[in-house]
Design a protein that fits this description.
Structural class: alpha+beta
Order of helices and strands: HHHEEEEHH
Radius of gyration: 20 Å
Number of strands: 4
Number of helices: 5
Distance between the termini: 18 Å
Number of domains: 2
Strand content: 15-25%
Length: 132
């Protein structure tokens, strides 16, 4: 659990600022201006401290809350038409149908399927989702 004890701002304000910085990639000074438009006067160095202090803890909490996947999974491949051209979405699916990873490709290649069978793409998935 992320502790906000001793913080001078409410928990919601801190989480909103950290989320906004991480999600949209704005600079601290731009975020300072955005928060000022919302009626919250906060300095850009304070925003830097919040991101440094809370982003790792928030990521750890989210990782723990995320359900683990089963060790058995398969790769699903299909094609769809987007604006008249074919796109090949590849996705890794566990045995319960939960999508583990998704990768669209403009070309249908055997290299992706072969790399998954060799474990290149799979090892990345397995290490991310095998948090038990």
């Amino acid at each position: 659990m992320v502790s906000f004890q001793g913080a001078h701002f409410p928990k919601d304000v801190i989480l909103h600022a950290v989320f906004f910085y991480l999600r949209y990639g704005v600079s601290y000074r731009d975020l300072e201006e955005i928060m000022g438009e919302r009626g919250i006067s906060v300095d850009h160095t304070t925003l830097n401290r919040w991101v440094t202090r809370y982003s790792g803890a928030i990521a750890d909490t989210a990782r723990r809350r995320k359900g683990s996947c089963d060790r058995s999974w398969r790769m699903d491949e299909t094609y769809i038409k987007v604006k008249g051209s074919s796109v090949y979405p590849y996705r890794a699916v566990d045995k319960y149908g939960k999508t583990l990873d998704f990768m669209p490709s403009q070309r249908r290649t055997n290299r992706l399927r072969q790399s998954s069978s060799r474990g290149c793409w799979v090892s990345r998935l397995s290490s991310q989702h095998r948090q038990r």
